[in-house]
DNA sequence: TAACTCCTACCGAGCGATCGCTCGGTAGGA
DNA sequence: TCCTACCGAGCGATCGCTCGGTAGGAGTTA
């Protein structure tokens, strides 16, 4: 019972924790190359060299260049969806809180995992066959989560928007857009940015930054963790 | 004098007018290919075939594949900047109106010229040398225009934002993001979308959709024009 | 314990296809 | 005689990918 409670508390905050080097070295090399030159602009030789492997050495691990992209994109979409569901679950039954945490989660992901999110968004057209279909489905599901919460908030009279569907898209777009410009060496930490974006998003729904502005995220909670998931600062 | 006034009135609304087929056929073929497969995913043979030209025929008009991209991107950034300046100029001295028209202009451009805007944003990394530098400079200038108006509005007490800089970036991102998802066959016309986005943007600055919601854009002003710049409907 | 058989984890060399681009033309109007 | 507007053929480079290996560790047998 005691253990279960502890576990539950830990799990509840799992969506906020981002460890570094989550990708195997070879996928990380591919990701870095894709970010720099795009999928078609990247050669298999570049990726292999970056991973300190020969070309056949690379093909021992992945069947094709396409397989590298698929693995990266699938990792990204699964990670985001799991985190999003955790965030909404943590919020309980309050739509306002569900919305706030979901937007924080979205912003947090696109700042912490900006390279991953950038490729997942920009290289959809380079995905072949059903990988592309599956990816688009995930994107739509992500958008739908925000739509649903906003619609629920509208019904409850908590939110006020002239065009909820457009507002929802605008909010999701501004969050996913973070991946395009966010730099780790910039002024804002992902956590600070996420709180600000959640507040901006709330404004579009007629809810001021108002109550509970001091989110748990701004408290001294350790957020960055090492490869084993343990805090490495804070 | 009379002529000059008429010209001035016409010019003042020029930023709202979008004619089709603004690009020479060859550049349009290149743009369509870049949108479908990306710059590196596009072969010069594909572009040539699309333009009903042989490969040497293509090279008669443009020196290289890179030159095609540069021409497209330069056209896009010049068009947007000129329109933005016209929009702000039309607004007169009211920051609130300057902001509203600038956001409408931004949204309008990214909906009407979504392919152009999409490539200009996503293929920056494929630009070589000073073309890339020049393009980034233009992007920054565009962002700066919004920053400046928001800052002015803050000083005048018209706008209220906790973090004006972040709000500004969020607004610009959500507008440029239109190019990623907008479809001409969707539910909203570019003009309807632009009005909605301007209102959403105003909300983030603590200004309700409020006054003057019926913008000139929703009035029966003809907006689409033919290749010669004349209205073709309305 | 030495020899043998697997297995994983690679690599040097290179294949066929395709890439961006060019050479040396032609056709037709001024 | 130019010039513009093209094109068939093809060059050298590079692409994604593969062939036929080797190195070394684990497990099995004599």
From TrEMBL, chains A, B:
Residue ranges for the DNA-binding region feature of this UniProt entry: 43-62
Region ranges (Disordered): 209-234
SUPFAM superfamilies with a match to the protein in the record: Homeodomain-like (SSF46689), Tetracyclin repressor-like, C-terminal domain (SSF48498)
Superkingdom, natural source: Bacteria
Start and end residues of each HTH tetR-type domain: 20-80
Keywords linked to the UniProt accession: DNA-binding
GO molecular function: DNA-binding transcription factor activity; transcription cis-regulatory region binding
Xref: PANTHER family: HTH-TYPE TRANSCRIPTIONAL REGULATOR RUTR (PTHR30055), TRANSCRIPTIONAL REPRESSOR MCE3R (PTHR30055:SF237)
Protein name: TetR/AcrR family transcriptional regulator
Naturally occurring in which organism (per UniProt): Cryobacterium suzukii
